[in-house]
Fold:
Amino acid sequence: PATRLLSENVTISNNSDFFYNFTATLLDADVNYLLLVHLDNNSDFGENGSIVFDFADNDGQQNGTPTGIYLFNKSTGIIAGAYIIGRDGDNKNYIDFGDQDTFISKRNVSYVGWVRPNVAGTVIDGIFGKYNTGTSTGLRIFKDGTKLKIAADSTIVSTNDNFFAAGTWTHFAVTIVENGSMYIYRNGLFNISGTYTDIGSNAIVAKLGAYEPDIADWRPWRGRIDEFAIINKTLNAIEVNDTYRPKSGVYNWYVNATDNTNKTNLSVTRSFRIDRPAEVVNVSISPDDVANITN
Structure:
């Protein structure tokens, strides 16, 4: 895996302690990733507040352009930084990734990410959308009150209440199967399933943090978004869990400290190992039909 930013603290004082809990998966793109954004505003990758770097290069690296009222904060994400969108009532806050029909369609594809809403109640906040409201074609993922909802063309698949809570980070995964099935996961665990008929293409640009991408009432996400990815396959339950919590393996880390005079010191590289217990993907019993035999 490549070197990735875990956390940054720009206000730490001398002789003080800095604690960081590494509890979430730091995603690394493979050939199946269509989009991966860490949302750290990391200058090492050319991010400068006006560019969001796409770490998935399988489809030609489609960087995003943020617009509206937003903020990147390197120390308030689930991992390192996060994209903080607007205030209550602000419109047209989103990250624009262009007209990318490869991000949606009726096929095997998954959407994963972390979100932290500012408000719950009955408000609608958009997470991801490439949807034409005039023709009801495309896909959008959004929060409706405390529920997560997915619109696939004119079909709505919804979770029950309390999927989200205001001020709390929640990991979501939406896995879509080309046969018309859809599965939703919350914090690495299966939540609910549904069905859909089609996901049509359209000429609307794909936006992160928007509910209605093509009309005046944008209903932006009010809160924080982090570690968002679109993966060109239907993740199974274990693969979804791997996007939620760290996978088994050896992790190396180090600290880069810079003082007020721009003198930099690097710590030694340290390691730790995570060994997760074995998990069962599915269970089958054979033979599936047993004859009764009487002696």
